[in-house]
From TrEMBL:
Example GO BP: formaldehyde catabolic process
Record-linked SUPFAM superfamilies: alpha/beta-Hydrolases
Location (main, coarse): cytoplasm
Keywords per UniProt: Cytoplasm, Hydrolase, Serine esterase
Catalysed reactions, semicolon-separated: S-formylglutathione + H2O = formate + glutathione + H(+)
Cellular location(s): Cytoplasm
Family annotation (InterPro entries): AB_hydrolase_fold, Esterase-like, S-formylglutathione_hydrol
GO CC terms of this entry: cytosol
Identification of the protein by name: S-formylglutathione hydrolase
Family: Belongs to the esterase D family.
Length: 298
């Protein structure tokens, strides 16, 4: 599989690469942005770890690349960044028939859909956590002065719907220790209990709530055993208009009670912050340090 380089942009001390490639999982052309830190351009003894960032509803790979200010932190610690798209796109890709912004194109919820007409293209869980890392590894192999580790030494974070996607993937794949660490900005923490999640899960996975549990962080906490040291970092603004009705991070804390994750979720309620990238960018340095420690960079 071949990536097309659409643009290379000098950014901070490194380079942002805007790529596209045909995906077998989604059956569409997929866009992805990759930030190569300054360390990539100098010979490294060890491979450079990778942080995956999943964006929220209505977003594309451009939003966080332009507004989250991850690049200076990537240069500071020496990790690369991958910004996948939020859904398949293109002619023939089914969208929400009601043309709403919280379902369909740019709102995949990062699951592998099982329902028509979405299951053909909306295979986003398999795409992001299986196909994309393998294809990026092959594409960047023997390029540049340093090796990039897209598969083994990786961490995950995200915002809003992407925060849910990060929590879901971290916990769902936890037994195999796919991701070294997980953090989230204003995530949808227990989608089975809020309208955004119920609509998405019902549309992509069907109306039987039992089929939602393998993706729902609130249930996955009870199905996965923490090995004893792993923690999850979350920031949530109290001025976020979605905080009380769609995000509800306290539900995740409640769900963790009595499980191996009890006391392992570091929820930070930050006064006055909203849902925007002003909020995200403010706390990116804290999340970057958290992941750098878990990736062995500090």
């Amino acid at each position: 599989m071949t990536f097309q380089i659409k643009q290379e942009i000098a950014s901070c001390g490194g380079k942002l690469m805007k790529l596209s490639h045909p995906s077998k999982k989604t059956g569409t052309e997929m866009e992805v942005n990759v930030y190569l830190p300054k360390q990539y351009f100098h010979k490294q003894d060890q491979s450079i770890p990778v942080l995956y960032y999943l964006s929220g509803l209505t977003c594309s790979p451009q939003n966080a690349s332009e507004k989250a200010f991850w690049q200076p932190q990537a240069d500071k610690y020496g990790f690369a960044l991958v910004f996948p798209d939020t859904s398949p796109r293109g002619e023939g890709v089914p969208d929400d028939p009601e043309e709403s912004w919280d379902f369909g194109i740019s709102a995949s919820f990062y699951v592998d859909a099982t329902q028509e007409p979405y299951k053909k293209n909306y295979q986003m869980f398999s795409y992001i956590h299986d196909e994309l890392p393998r294809e990026l590894s092959q594409f960047f192999e023997n390029k540049g002065n340093s090796k990039l580790d897209f598969v083994e030494n990786v961490a995950i974070t995200g915002h809003s719907m992407g925060g849910f996607g990060a929590l879901s993937a971290f916990l769902k794949l936890y037994p195999e220790r796919k991701y070294k660490s997980c953090s989230a900005f204003a995530p949808i923490t227990f989608p089975s209990k809020v309208q955004w999640g119920q609509k998405a899960f019902g549309g992509y996975l069907g109306q039987e709530e039992e089929k939602w549990k393998p993706y729902d962080p609130g249930h996955l906490l009870k199905m996965t055993t923490n090995i004893g040291s792993d923690k999850i970092l979350i920031h949530q603004g109290t001025g976020d208009p979605f905080y009380k009705n769609q995000l509800k991070p306290e539900l995740l804390l409640e769900a963790s009670k009595g499980t191996s994750w009890d006391g392992k979720i570091n929820l930070n309620l930050v006064e006055g912050f909203d849902h925007s990238y002003y909020f995200v960018s403010t706390f990116v340095p804290e999340h970057a340090e958290f992941h750098a420690k878990n990736l062995g960079l500090i």
